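Long-time lurker. I teach an intro course on protein structure, and each term I like to show students one example going from raw sequence to a predicted 3D structure in token notation. This year I'd like something fresh instead of my usual example. Would anyone be willing to generate the tokens for the chain below so I can use it in lecture? Attribution to the forum is fine with me.
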Amino acid sequence: MKKNLFDFTNKTILITGGSSGIGRATALAFAQQGANIVIGDLNETAAQETVELIKKEGVKSLFVKANVSYAADVKALVEKTVSAFGGLDCAFNNAGVFHAPMSIEDLDEDSFDRVIAIDLKGCFLCMKYELQHMVKAGKGAIVNTASVAGLLPEAGSGAYVGRQTRRDRSNQDGGHRACPPRYSRQRPGSGLGPYGDDEGLGRR
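-- Reply from a regular --
Happy to contribute to a lecture. Here you go:
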């Protein structure tokens, strides 16, 4: 009998930025294959909607409010995931924001810092605390959302493009240093999540 490569029954998947867009779609895809899902996000209302949709697939789900740019939040997110489900099999680091399109000379420092803190530092913090568990467990897989903007930058997306390049390098460094777990990245185009506003912080 051929093994179902997409069977994630009783596996635990942690998804940041899972309240809408790519994050929500990924969460539902995993849930349909039997995985239990933890959603890390700041938008509680939208994240809880995702959790209810996941539960309709007959699996368990948990929402943990977390800002991925804060180490304490990310550490607690991973700890609550492991405590609730007994482990962490896969992490999808998808949280991210964007700044309004503008040239470098017009981009304000606060907008730049916000993109770097969430998109780059947030990815680093997620990998840091996920790895602490996965390396100890001797198993796991991490997927980081990158972007086609890292290869084909668009005008007016300076800070976002810069963080994409560094995020790729972080992914490569992690992959060289620890196996298991496994690493990969995806490069989507524009997502459906309102990740340019404060309320949508952490969504794609």
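Some talking points for your students: Helices lie at 21-32, 44-55, 71-85, 109-137, 158-177. Strands lie at 12-16, 36-41, 61-65, 90-93, 141-145, 182-186.
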